[in-house]
Amino acid sequence: MPKETTMTLHKKSIKNIILLNFFQRLSFRNNPGKVFHKVNCAVWFLVLLLSVQLPSPCQEQMKDKTEEDVQKKALKVFVEGGISRDYMKREIRFINYVRDPRMADVYILITGQSTGSGGTEYLISYQGQNNYKGIDDTLKFIRNRTDTYEIYRRGLIKVIKQGLMRYVATTPTISEISFLYKPSERKIIPEIDKWKKWVFSIGFDAEIDVEESEKGYDFGIRLSASKITEKWKFTSYFSFDYDENRYEYEENTIKDIRRRLRARSMLARKMGEHWAIGVNGNINKDVRYNNKLSVELSPTIEYNLYPYSEFSRRQFPIRIGISLNHNDYYEETIYNKTSEFLSKMYMSAANVIRGKWGNVINVISGSFYIQDFSKNNFEWVNIFDFRLFKGFSINALTVVNLIHNQIYLKKGDLTVEEVLLKRTRLETRYSYFISFGFRYSFGSKYQNIVNPRFGY
């Protein structure tokens, strides 16, 4: 039975039951003088009942039809990247959120890149589809290093709204949108940067994890400094980590202490829209790699097949460099070395493409020691998330290493504790990691409703 007919019969049944009970209570066994009074009350009760009846099916049907019409005529949008979808749906309610890019009138891609001040520059790219094909735009939003998450997401939503207006203006929804202009009364005074674009950061973290038979204590110190301009880029980072773990089993106590020190710096200069030159410096100290102290200096040149200005959508950087290393080891290596100076050549190429069909990242890198070409390393990393058809996408992560350069391995036999606690690296000629999966979404193409219950 149709929904409208069922609702109508249900409401008529309610009215009939109420009227039947009322008239049953009218007693004509009373004196005739009161009969007219009771009939009069019944008439007035009937009028009152009809006047306060529940909304008719026609009214509900008209309301549903109006909302459906508005939903059909509103701009259909698919957003990739950026902030929480639930928050976006609450703040931007004049569009339809669809579950697949192929259903959208406008495809929005949000990407970010670190700024020199420690913040993030977001590029919001709008790509028109269907009736809006060829109407594209790109807006920017800067998140300062000191901005809270709330300030960041409010600012980003504001810019997203601004970019949508040119598309929404052609839909009936525009009649429901009002605009407010608030001119600033403050005078804009040029700000003097007393830090000259330098940004510094200091951090400390600690962790305590205790059980009856197992205890762990970790702490770390982080320092960083950077200065980034249009032509120059300098970054430096220092970290020190101390990890102590104790295991008690029967009458035995095993204590494992590890100290790691890492420092790295990079200086690069822009040489146009495709070229850049730079130098990297690294200092490392790690007992797991038998590394008492390693100092490395690496001049590098980079060529990008695509202009750097297109980094948010595609990149193809190719890097070639020479690395000069001096290594001191805790224990004698399998090559009978406690200290040595080495030089190696290295090369890498990366292909990064982002679009409404998905994302693909491919990185290939390799190196070899100039003193001995047989000591080399090759690595391939592949990440992709590809939409095959409406609602269906596949994703995978693959990392493959061919390893022939473990010059740091300790000479002699290893103890059981060293192997089980992974205090040292084991000899290997390869390693690989693979993960994959798929997602299939189907059903209603609209995803506008937000329900925060049982969520946080």
Describe this structure in words.
By secondary structure, the protein is α+β, with helices and mostly antiparallel strands. The chain folds into 4 domains: 52 residues; 106 residues, Double Stranded RNA Binding Domain; 76 residues, no CATH class; 164 residues. The protein has 6 helices and 18 strands. The strands form 2 sheets. Strands 6, 7, 8, 9, 10, 11, 12, 13, 14, 15, 16, 17 and 18 form a 13-stranded antiparallel sheet that branches. Strands 2-1-3-4-5 form a 5-stranded mixed sheet. The longest helix is centred in the N-terminal third of the chain and has 22 residues. The N terminus is likely disordered.
Brief overview:
With about 450 residues, the protein is of the alpha+beta class.
Task: Please render the helix and strand layout as text.
Layout: H1 3-24, H2 35-51, H3 57-73, E1 75-80, H4 85-91, E2 95-97, E3 106-114, E4 120-128, E5 136-143, H5 149-168, E6 198-210, E7 214-228, E8 232-249, E9 252-270, E10 275-286, E11 291-304, E12 314-315, E13 317-329, E14 339-355, E15 358-369, E16 372-389, E17 392-403, H6 416-420, E18 430-440
Name a few traits of the molecule.
456 residues; alpha+beta; Double Stranded RNA Binding Domain; 4 domains; 13-stranded antiparallel β-sheet; five-stranded mixed β-sheet; 6 helices; 18 strands; 46% strand
Radius of gyration: 35 Å
Low-confidence blocks of residues:
1-12, 26-32
H/E topology pattern:
HHHEHEEEEHEEEEEEEEEEEEHE
Sheet of most strands: 13 strands, antiparallel
Amount of helix: 10-25%
